[in-house]
Structures are given as C-alpha cells and as structure tokens.
Inverse folding.
C-alpha cells in the first residue's frame, strides 16, 4: 500500500504542467483508503464523524506557497490532557499551545480597542472590551504569523461576530430581542456582501448600515478581509457566516417560546454555529490560499467541523455557570444535558468533556489520514486548525468574558 501511495504521489508531483493541464494533476490520494480510524461517537451524540464516501477529484492551487511568516516557523507541539477551570473537572484532551506572545497580543489588542472606539461598538464598555482580549485570542489562535495586520483582521472579524451576537442575540441590556434577530441578521449579510444597487432604496439601506455600530463594525471587518483575501476566500467567509446565522434564529425561536431543545437538536444547530466559522480565516491570516475544492472536500470539511465543534464545547463549559444564573439562560450543552438527563451539573460537565475529547480525537485521526494528501496548503491549514483549538482553549481560560 505504501509503495502504491508513493508511486501515486510521485506521478502527481511530476505530471504535466502549463495551461490546461491542471486536471492532470488531481490529488487522487484523497480517495485512497483511510490510514486511520475515527473513533465512534458516544451513543447519545449525533454521528458527526460518520464514514464519508470516497472524495471527489480536487484541483490544487497553481500558485507558489509563501513561506510562513512566523519567527522560528510554525510547528505542532502535540496533544495532551489539559486542566481547565479550577482543575476539579476531568481534563480536556486538546492540542498544546504553539505560541504565547503577550507583547504581540497587547499590540494587536490595543489596535483592536482603537478600532472598536472608531466604529462605535461597546462604546460605554471599552474597558471591559479591552479585558476580553479578542486581540490576544487572534495571537493565540493564529501562531503561524507575527504580522500585526492579518492578526488585527482576525481580531476585528471575531469581535464583529461577537458584537452581532451580543447586540442582536444574547444581551438584552444591549438591545437583543428574539423577534428582531432575523431582520437584523439580514442587514448584517448586506453589510458583508453588498447587494446590487436599487436607486433610492439602496440609499436607505446605506443609511441603516451607517446608523448601527454593529453593522459599521461588520462592514469594516469585511473591507479588511477583501484587502487580504482572494474572491473565493471572501465568499467562503460570507457563506459560512450566513450559515451560522441560521442557527442563531433557531436559538431565538427557542428563547421566544421559552423552550429548551433536546441535546441532539442543539448539537445539530451548534455544529454549524461553532468556531468552525473563525477557523475559516486561517489561510487568510497565514498569507496563502487553500483551494476551494480542497476546503470543501468531505474529509477536510469533516475534520474542520470536528475541531470547530470541540472548540465551541470549550466555550459552553466555561460559560455554563454564568448562564445557569440567568432567568432565561442561553442554549448551552452542559445545561441542556443536565436538564434532559436529570443529573447534577457536575455530571453534565463530565459528559460534555467526554464529547469534546471525542471530537478532538476525531480531528487528530482525520489530520493523520489527510497527511497523505500532497498539498502543502492543506497541511498548513490543518496545522492551523490544530493551533486554533489550542489557542481557543488558552484564551477561554484567561479572558474575563466568562468569569
């Protein structure tokens, strides 16, 4: 098997070149038999890691891959069981953090706070916004580069997403209300992806976009995106953001009706409203482009969804205690497990930790399987996903947002 794979890779790398020959350089290694086995999901969890059909042909990018822009290069420090919270709960199996640079994080965060003041989000809470440290999150989650500008872009994009969540979906003291959420999100989509002009009606749209700080922030972050990304990357970010918003409308309906969804239904929505969205920025921040077909290839998609879901469970774990104190708590996997199973909160936490660890091990297995694909861009992207999981874990343990 190894000899066959080596022969196939060699043929791919030495195949014809020039205009019109990209189809002759398709990495069939994606369709090879898996070299690892993804562990089965616990019985109560929807099958997010089912076996996938053989991959379709994928055309690799033709452009030369730039070198990583990180001092000392980018590397994998591996995986380990890591303590979290007060250390009394079972550990989270997670990648180890590749880079902690407090000086760089401070620089990015200072610029981010100045940008937030300029666009108008969190106008009366800038000190709290500074302490949240979205700039630090960007530095932790994107260890491939030391370049402040793309790191600032990642911080802006995440802060804008969080602002739309806070102002429109979650925080009633900031004006969030379930019944207004869908039309507000429709405007967010127009801020990111401007519709064709319609005369005086577009003028009215423009007035609305300029009057709302959240929309100003989203549009500003999207403009920064367009300075750094190619067209397919821009539309990837837009499409996946809008996909995330569909899940938000489900949460809003549950809150409006005073209903708690079953865990399986929550997970079905949460897997499309996860840090998968943030992970789609990885190649843009790194200064290269993962081909759209490779990004969407079923095994790659599954791997990144595993990582995104694992990372958002970390978010649920850190926010469970605070949300449990609300009169109408947000949907949270820990609280939903406790309600559905009729078990103590600690037992629900243990179940959520087990679920998280399953998804991380699934990603790790997928990463090993996809190592056979002869695409430097893909390998860098998967290493970036690994780095994002580690950085997200590190940030959740230090930010004041969930304390």
């Amino acid at each position: 098997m190894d000899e066959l794979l080596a022969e196939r890779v060699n043929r791919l790398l030495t195949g014809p070149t020039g205009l019109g020959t990209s189809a002759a350089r398709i990495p069939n290694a994606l369709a090879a038999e898996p070299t690892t086995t993804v562990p089965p999901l616990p019985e109560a969890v929807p099958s997010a890691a089912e076996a996938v059909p053989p991959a379709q042909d994928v055309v690799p990018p033709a452009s030369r891959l730039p070198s990583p822009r990180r001092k000392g290069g980018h590397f994998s420090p591996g995986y380990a069981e890591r303590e979290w919270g007060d250390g009394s709960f079972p550990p989270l199996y997670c990648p180890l953090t590749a880079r902690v640079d407090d000086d760089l994080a401070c620089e990015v965060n200072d610029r981010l706070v100045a940008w937030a003041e300029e666009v108008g989000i969190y106008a009366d809470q800038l000190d709290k916004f500074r302490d949240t440290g979205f700039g630090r999150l960007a530095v932790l989650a994107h260890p491939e580069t030391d370049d402040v500008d793309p790191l600032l872009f990642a911080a802006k994009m995440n802060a804008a997403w969080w602002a739309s969540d806070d102002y429109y979906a979650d925080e009633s003291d900031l004006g969030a209300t379930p019944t207004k959420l869908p039309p507000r999100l429709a405007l967010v989509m127009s801020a990111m992806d401007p519709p064709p002009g319609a005369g005086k009606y577009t003028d009215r749209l423009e007035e609305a976009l300029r009057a709302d700080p959240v929309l100003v922030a989203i549009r500003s972050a999207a403009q920064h995106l367009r300075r750094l990304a190619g067209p397919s990357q821009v539309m990837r970010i837009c499409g996946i953001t809008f996909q995330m918003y569909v899940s938000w409308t489900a949460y809003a309906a549950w809150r409006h009706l005073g209903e708690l969804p079953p865990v399986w239904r929550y997970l079905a929505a949460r897997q499309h409203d996860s840090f998968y969205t943030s992970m789609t920025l990885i190649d843009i921040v790194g200064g290269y482009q993962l081909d759209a077909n490779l990004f969407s290839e079923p095994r790659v998609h599954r791997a990144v969804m595993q990582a995104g879901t694992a990372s958002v469970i970390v978010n649920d774990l850190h926010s469970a205690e605070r949300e449990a104190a609300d009169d109408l708590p947000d949907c949270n996997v820990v609280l939903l497990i406790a309600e559905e199973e009729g078990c103590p909160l600690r037992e629900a936490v243990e179940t959520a930790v087990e679920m998280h660890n399953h998804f991380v091990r699934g990603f790790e297995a997928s990463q090993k399987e996809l190592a056979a694909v002869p695409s430097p861009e893909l390998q860098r992207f998967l290493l970036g996903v690994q780095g994002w999981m580690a950085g997200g874990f590190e940030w959740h343990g230090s930010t004041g947002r969930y304390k």
User: Anything to note?
Assistant: The chain has one domain: 92-402.
